[in-house]
Amino acid sequence: MNSDSRATTYSYRGARAMVLLHEEYLRSCLRTWKLGKEAGILLPVTDDPDYESMESLLRHILGAARGYMVWMCEKLELPDPTIDPVPNLDKIAELGESYLEHLLERWRTPLRDVSVERFGIPTYPSRWGVDYCIDAMLEHAVRHPIRHEFQLKELIRVRGEES
Predict the structure, then answer these.
(1) Separation of alpha carbons 1 and 3, rounded Å
(2) Could you give the domains of the chain?
């Protein structure tokens, strides 16, 4: 984790913890994605465009992280966090690591001055139709790369057993 994110003070320390955990797990997920890419794993066949390729999966993971912070800032009426759009599919493998650094840097400060009360009430509809309070969206953002990293590790393990 970047020392800047550890030094940032937050009105609500729970938000600080989630931002730090999000950073840790996104970094770990990217490392595992690279291992999977090097191992030549194939994603299971599905109609979901986010799973068409390893590149589409990485773009999904990073795009979701961007979307969570943009959504929270919108709902809390905070300034736009100015997170660049995710690189295109043909560039995501090459630019994934540098984009991740940009993304994490933009994640570090938007929520720092938000009072604890605003994290729990009210709830807001997510872009996929489920209601979340800000605290729950932060937890969702942390779990997202963990879930995908678990899936990738399973595929890497199976690939190793087949070799």
Answers:
(1) 6
(2) 3-162 (1.20.120)
